[in-house]
Design brief:
The protein is mostly helical. The chain has helices spanning 31-41, 45-58, 62-86, 93-100, 103-135, 141-158, 160-189, 202-205, 214-226, 234-238, 245-254, 256-274, 280-284, 286-293, 299-331, 348-367, 372-379, 383-405, 419-437, 439-469. It has one domain (31-469): Amino acid/polyamine transporter I, CATH 1.20.1740.
């Protein structure tokens, strides 16, 4: 049947397969790189800084909010892991959407994710520049942005192993920081840290109780927590350039549950147990607030260093992820053909294009911070939910095809299929409805819907044009 993919060979509907068996990309990543990319991928600046807004809105119930949003993320990663283990591809979910739904779906999900990553690079560069200009007064933010952009563009231009090594050590530093925080916090909660007394459950049950903001507070905390889980998708993109992509994806997905439980839910529990949720210092930085509460010298500067590492790590990973997604799209005929050349197994033109777009977004923040840059931020505000929706629909269709045509490829299986896949889709829809209720997120939803619709229409027109040519 025309347009139907061959699941055994991994061909794509467009006739341009995107997988490790056919891609000219280098396979320089090792298992330790993938493991640390997956491990560090869940520890970003959103956790260290952005979680403060969630705590201020939800109080102690932020623990439940992170658990619920983490559960949805685990289900999404399990679905993505199933497809990526069966068909490793540098385009990850975009390739799966194209195979399962059609070229327009791969086009839409791929380019909206590329836009999201490039805008994220700009935001991370601005955040890192702000920290550096604070340490070195008198130096302009634009100078630090230019330095960071040049450095990470250069790293990604050299080789995939180069990216892997840098990300390995960045992730190792983030993991060490969060583990040390959890150990210190747990000792303080138990009253084992010298000079501190155990607070017991006073901060959890007092100060308005576990749900001080009621259902509305929990919803606000849920929305704040959901978008802190960025970075997990990168490992499925990176796996296509590893020596053993199937094993790499399978291992990363299977360990996602305890990573989320320990790093996110565990640290939120430590924070709201040790200090009152409405403490003003929590909003500016909950981790620094806890360290200061425990009497750790220079707590704010320590956390600034950790946040800087998290921001630089995210920049590195997002430039990588954006360049590979763009390369995959171009290779499948869904982007400018001149960007499809590789040199030494590296798609340097898409690395340059992705970095350039990120830098252009930074310039927009300087030129029109309250208009154009804000519109750009709003356009990607709910983009991850669009991607998760495509992942769920793709997995529903791909799983049934795999069971019929290539069951041996089901190395990773979605739990309780198809029930939990439908639950995931319903959860994504419920979050979108919750965003529609909130004034702060309704604008983001409208802008993201506009971008998604524009990409979908463009993808459908391209798909029909290609069909007429054939």
């Amino acid at each position: 049947m025309p347009g139907t993919p061959d699941l055994k060979t991994g061909g794509s509907p467009t006739g341009s397969p995107d997988g490790p068996e056919s891609s000219p990309l280098a396979h320089g990543l090792r298992q330790r790189h993938l493991s640390m990319i997956a491990l560090g991928g869940v520890i970003g600046a959103g956790l260290f800084v952005g979680s403060g807004a969630g705590i201020a809105a939800a109080g102690p119930s932020i623990v439940l909010a992170y658990a619920l949003s983490g559960l949805l993320v685990m289900l999404v990663m399990r679905m993505l892991g199933e497809m990526s283990a069966a068909h490793p591809a540098s385009g990850s979910f975009s390739v799966h959407a194209e195979r399962a739904i059609g070229p327009w779906a791969g086009f839409t999900s791929g380019w909206i994710f590329w836009t999201l990553l490039c805008v994220a690079v700009a935001v991370e560069a601005l955040g890192a520049a702000a920290i550096m200009s604070g340490w070195f007064p008198g130096t302009p933010d634009w100078l630090w942005v230019a330095v960071f952009m040049a450095v990470f563009c250069g790293i990604n231009m050299l080789s995939v192993r180069n990216f892997g090594e840098y990300e390995f050590w960045f992730a190792a530093l983030k993991v060490a920081a969060i583990v040390l925080f959890l150990l210190l916090g747990a000792a303080a909660v138990l009253g084992l840290l010298p000079g501190t007394e155990s607070p017991g459950a006073a901060n959890l049950t007092g100060e308005g109780g576990f749900f001080p903001g009621g259902a509305e507070g929990l919803v606000a905390g849920l929305l704040a927590s959901l978008f802190a889980y960025g970075g997990l998708e990168t490992v499925t993109i990176a796996a296509a350039e590893s020596h053993d992509p199937v094993r790499g994806v399978a291992k990363a997905v299977r360990t996602a549950m305890w990573r989320i439980a320990v790093f996110y839910v565990g640290s939120m529990l430590v924070i709201v147990t040790l200090i009152p949720w409405h403490d003003e210092s929590v909003l500016s930085g909950p981790y620094a607030a806890v360290l200061d509460h425990l009497g750790i010298p220079a707590a704010a500067q320590i956390m600034n260093a950790v946040v800087l590492v998290a921001l630089l790590s995210a920049m590195n990973a997002n430039i990588y992820g954006a360049s590979r997604m763009a390369y995959s799209l171009v290779r499948r005929g869904e982007g400018p053909a001149f960007l499809g050349k590789t040199t030494g197994g590296v798609p340097r033109r898409t690395v340059l294009a992705s970095s350039a777009f990120g830098f252009f977004a930074v310039l927009l923040s300087f030129w029109w911070p309250d208009t154009v840059f804000t519109w750009l931020l709003n356009m990607v505000g709910a983009a991850v939910l669009v991607v998760w929706g495509f992942i769920a629909v793709s997995q529903l269709r791909t799983r049934r095809r795999l069971e019929r045509e290539a069951p041996e490829k089901l190395v990773v299986r979605m739990w309780l299929f198809p029930v939990l896949t439908w639950v995931s889709l319903a959860a994504v829809a419920a979050v979108l409805l919750l965003m529609l209720r909130e004034d702060a997120t309704r604008i983001q939803l409208a802008f993201t819907a506009g971008l998604t619709l524009a990409l979908a229409v463009a993808g459908l027109l391209r798909q029909r044009a290609a069909a007429r040519v054939r």
